[in-house]
């Protein structure tokens, strides 16, 4: 015990210090590395008036939007431009959502559950209800369709239909909030009677004038000197005209990895060997799938829908014959005629899909499908049955209707349905078994019968070989190594006659650049580099790119370097106006003004206060306004007027009555207010957006590859 006591006495302080350090370390770990720590990475993709959009939520919304787009495009692949458009669409929807929600909250705009119910079940259903629950035959709202959808939702064990109905309720709520907001704005628009009377008076007469115009062109630009300080002051005094978004400008040279003659010969040699096998294979579909760059379509296409090089020669070859090789972009191709037949180029069907799902076994699904087939053959309306029983959410609201073409997209798992649509006869009814259930199909229409062809395409891509690509990469690397600043970059481009291109107005969230395609890595570099920096070599699909950052513009007011020509022209015009006005001083008469400037006295008739365009002069609103200045009237000449094209001195010779057609104030008011309401509908949100505090951090989460 005495030993233990000695340890306690000797090391007590040290032990306490160690414990304290451990506690502090534990606390600091949360400060520096915890979820809310000062060094943790932000997950905020952007903010609108303080409301954050987490980048994971942003990605989720993008995914939802992309899936919707694929459905609209019938499963087609989304290109780089499509994906970029969707990213911006989702971001803009978030901005609108936050801005308008804040407006609704500030004004106390709400939509109750009872109001939503009335919009659906009341005497005057919401337009969204009318749009989504109409009879496909008549286009008229049918409440029984809505009732059947609700019943299907109650029986749907997956909960998907119920979730869709909740989403639909939310859409109605949002529609009503926006309607209330717009109604409030519209109610604030008013056309007073005094304004009507004033405008009527302004239009009640025109002026005939004499004028002297001293064009700015009478003074040579070379005689007017301007300084950068004057130009920058003009920009600051007119900031609204020079507001610009953030952007970058990259000038670049591209070293293309184009296939050489040897590359083309190698691809052709390989294709010729495969052609011999194509002539003898019993499984053409499997052979094409395994060896061709073009997929095998195991169906027929009408002559008009086939679009390939050498089409006229290919379409007339006998069955079993091979045409080619021919070139199709960067492919070399053999085309083999597999079969010919006569078939329609368009077919319409109605279908009822019965899915095998929990609670409905395969045998039960088949029994339901067979019962529906019997009912339809007995005269039952397939459209009504589809609305009630079909598990296909894409077509049930239209009575299960689809319009098909031989080469058009249709879900691959429904290929048997498509085959029946074109191989059966109009009016035929059939139950088709699918891996996921059963489909009862009725062919309702077939038209434009003609020749249809089944063709197999054996294609090989002619790509640059590794040797060719390495040579192009070597040239790009040599260029980047030898030209590491903008001055030498420009000099080498000129000396070697390289084709320099420009990518301008690059935004932080650009993924695609004109002429380069998918180029996110270049965009990311441009926003990290300094002006004048030369990039490393960027590897794109078939080229190697070296760029130099020649412009880095921040959001706000445009720098003088970008707007110098326009600003110089305006400042010089102002200085010319000052010189002309100093020369004119205060002319006592119009003739004195003409004498002082050696310009003729001209005339203009029918000058209107309401219309600033003067036939003999052009668009000169200050001149039009001055003609009706009561201080001058018809007694004396005006002071010098700085116009758009020159300096003017005018004298009104007479005012001429301009009779206006009698117009009822109520009609004037209605027309004026309607015009302002339309303007508000178009511009109101943009005005709210301009006043909002929007921070866009999305580019942080999308670096280059």
What separation lies between the terminal Cα atoms?
67 Å
Largest sheet: 6 strands, antiparallel
Proportion in helices: 40-55%
* CATH third-level topology of the largest domain: Chitinase A, domain 3
The percentage of residues in β strands lies in: 15-25%
Overall CATH architecture of the largest domain:
Roll
Structural class designation: alpha+beta
List the helices and strands and how they pair.
Elements: H1 2-33, E1 44-48, E2 51-54, H2 55-72, H3 80-107, H4 113-121, H5 127-132, H6 143-155, H7 160-187, H8 193-202, E3 205-215, H9 228-237, E4 243-244, E5 247-256, H10 261-280, H11 284-291, E6 301-302, H12 311-315, E7 322-328, E8 331-355, H13 362-377, H14 382-389, E9 401-404, H15 415-423, E10 429-434, E11 437-461, H16 466-482, H17 486-496, E12 500-506, E13 512-513, E14 517-518, H18 520-526, E15 538-539, E16 543-553, E17 556-557, H19 560-584, H20 590-597, E18 602-607, E19 613-614, E20 618-619, H21 621-626, E21 641-642, E22 646-657, H22 665-691, E23 694-696
Antiparallel strand pairs: 1-2, 1-23, 3-18, 3-22, 4-17, 5-12, 5-16, 6-11, 7-8, 8-9, 8-11, 10-11, 13-14, 15-16, 19-20, 21-22
């Amino acid at each position: 015990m005495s030993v233990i006591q000695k340890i306690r006495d000797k090391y007590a302080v040290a032990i306490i210090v160690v414990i304290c350090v451990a506690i502090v370390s534990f606390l600091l770990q949360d400060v520096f590395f915890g979820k809310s720590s000062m060094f943790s990475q932000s997950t905020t993709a952007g903010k609108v008036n303080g409301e954050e959009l987490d980048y994971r939520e942003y990605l989720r919304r993008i995914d939802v939007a992309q899936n919707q787009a694929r459905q609209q495009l019938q499963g087609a692949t989304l290109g780089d431009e499509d994906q970029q458009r969707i990213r911006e669409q989702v971001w803009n929807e978030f901005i609108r959502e936050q801005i308008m929600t804040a407006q609704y909250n500030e004004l106390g705009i709400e939509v109750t559950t009872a109001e939503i119910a009335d919009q659906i079940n009341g005497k005057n259903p919401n337009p969204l209800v009318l749009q989504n629950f109409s009879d496909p035959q008549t286009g008229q709202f049918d409440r029984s369709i809505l009732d059947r959808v609700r019943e299907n939702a109650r029986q749907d064990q997956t909960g998907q239909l119920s979730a869709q109905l909740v989403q639909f309720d939310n859409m109605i709520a949002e529609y009503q909030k926006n309607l209330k907001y717009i109604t409030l704005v519209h109610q604030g628009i008013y056309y007073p009677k005094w304004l009507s009377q004033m405008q009527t008076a302004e239009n009640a007469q025109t002026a005939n004038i004499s004028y002297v115009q001293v064009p700015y062109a009478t003074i040579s630009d070379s005689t007017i000197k301007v300084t950068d300080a004057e130009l920058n002051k003009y920009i600051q005094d007119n900031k609204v005209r020079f507001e610009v978004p953030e952007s970058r400008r990259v000038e670049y040279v591209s070293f293309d990895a184009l296939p050489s003659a040897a590359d083309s010969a190698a691809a052709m040699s390989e294709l010729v060997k495969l052609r011999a096998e194509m002539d003898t294979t019993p499984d053409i579909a499997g052979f094409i799938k395994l060896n061709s760059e073009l997929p095998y379509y195991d169906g027929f296409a009408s002559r008009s829908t086939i679009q390939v090089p050498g089409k006229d020669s290919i379409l007339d070859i006998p069955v079993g014959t091979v045409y080619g090789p021919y070139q199709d972009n960067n492919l070399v191709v053999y085309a083999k005629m597999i079969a010919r037949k006569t078939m329609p180029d368009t077919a319409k069907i109605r279908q009822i899909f019965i899915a095998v799902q929990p609670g409905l076994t395969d045998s039960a699904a088949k029994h339901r499908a067979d019962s529906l087939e019997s009912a339809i053959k007995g005269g039952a309306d397939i459209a009504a049955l589809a609305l009630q029983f079909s598990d296909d959410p894409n077509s049930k609201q239209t009575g299960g209707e689809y319009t098909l073409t031989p080469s058009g997209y249709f879900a691959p798992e429904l290929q048997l349905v498509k085959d029946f649509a074109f191989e059966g006869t109009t009016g035929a009814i059939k139950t088709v078994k699918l891996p996921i259930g059963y489909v009862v199909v009725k062919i309702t229409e077939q038209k434009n019968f003609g020749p249809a062809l089944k063709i197999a395409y054996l294609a090989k891509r002619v790509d640059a070989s590794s040797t060719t690509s390495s040579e192009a990469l070597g040239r790009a690397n040599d260029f980047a190594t030898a030209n590491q600043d903008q001055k030498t970059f420009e000099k080498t481009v000129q000396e070697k006659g390289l084709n320099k291109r420009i990518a301008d107005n690059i935004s932080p969230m650009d993924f695609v650049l004109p002429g380069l395609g998918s180029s996110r890595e270049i965009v990311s570099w441009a926003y990290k580099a300094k002006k004048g920096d030369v990039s490393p070599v960027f590897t794109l699909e078939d080229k190697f790119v070296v760029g130099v950052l020649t412009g880095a513009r921040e959001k706000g007011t445009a720098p003088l370097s970008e707007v110098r020509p326009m600003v110089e022209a305006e400042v010089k015009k102002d200085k010319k106006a000052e010189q002309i006005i100093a020369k004119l001083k205060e002319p006592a008469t119009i003739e004195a003004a003409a004498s002082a400037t050696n310009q003729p006295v001209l005339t203009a008739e029918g000058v209107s206060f309401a219309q600033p365009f003067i036939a003999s002069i052009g668009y000169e609103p200050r001149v039009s306004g001055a003609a009706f200045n009561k201080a001058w009237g018809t007694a004396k000449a005006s002071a010098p007027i700085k116009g758009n094209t020159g300096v003017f001195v005018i004298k009104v010779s007479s005012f001429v009555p301009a009779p206006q057609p009698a117009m009822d104030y109520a009609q004037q008011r209605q027309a004026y207010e309607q015009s302002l309401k339309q303007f508000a509908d178009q511009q109101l949100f943009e005005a709210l957006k301009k006043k909002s505090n929007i921070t866009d951090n999305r580019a942080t989460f999308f670096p280059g590859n």
